[in-house]
Design a protein that fits this description.
The protein has 189 residues and is α/β, with parallel strands linked by helices. It is built from 7 helices and 6 strands, in the order E-H-E-E-E-H-E-H-E-H-H-H-H.
Length: 189
């Protein structure tokens, strides 16, 4: 767990943060990274968890996920940010990842917690520009390095995207749409 002053993190992010707020971010997969960020009037508390699922059947996996995700999404959370699926080469993987996110959404809806979905690259681009040459094939390391640069040193790279997602949830007036959707909307006006 890391504790920072809101004013310091606002300066590092160059963004205004919500006070007295709790945001949780989910990077869902068979190894799920969760970021939990809470603010009071002057401090930010950043925590994370790594959940590894092992199951013999897909039904058992979905059941385990549903039960575990429910432990994290509680009524005190104000925002739940879920990594959206990337349309990859394998449609079966894409379908599974979409279902994993759906399990998180189900808990958010049940507990009346506002939720957003955003793709991993869109989420990152809201905070920093990824140096594709330097971090080719090492995106998790890039995110961990960025977090370290703003005072958030984590010991588990698999949780880095979960923290990025949770960070987006505490930023005032965050627009969760992709940059291209925002640009398209601005051009239409």
């Amino acid at each position: 767990m890391i504790k920072l002053k809101i004013i310091e993190l606002e300066k590092s992010l160059n963004k205004k943060l919500k006070k007295n707020f709790i945001s949780i971010g989910f990077d869902t997969a068979s190894i799920t990274g969760v970021g939990i960020i809470s603010t009071d009037t002057s401090n930010v508390t950043i925590d994370w968890a790594l959940i590894k699922f092992e199951a013999n059947t897909i039904q058992e996996l979905y059941t385990q996920m549903y039960q575990e995700f429910g432990k994290f999404i509680t009524k005190d959370k104000k925002c739940c940010v879920i990594e959206d699926v990337f349309l990859g080469m394998n449609p079966n993987v894409t379908i599974k990842l979409a279902r994993f996110g759906g399990l998180v959404m189900a808990h958010a809806i049940e507990k009346n917690v506002h939720f957003e979905t955003i793709g991993a690259s869109s989420a990152r681009s809201k905070l920093f520009t990824l140096d594709r040459k330097k971090y080719k094939g090492k995106t998790k390391q890039a995110v961990a390095d960025y977090l370290k640069s703003i005072g958030i040193k984590i010991d588990e790279d698999n949780c880095a995207d979960g923290i990025i997602l949770a960070l987006l949830g505490i930023i005032v007036d965050m627009d969760f749409r992709s940059q291209s959707a925002i640009k398209k909307d601005n051009n239409a006006q």
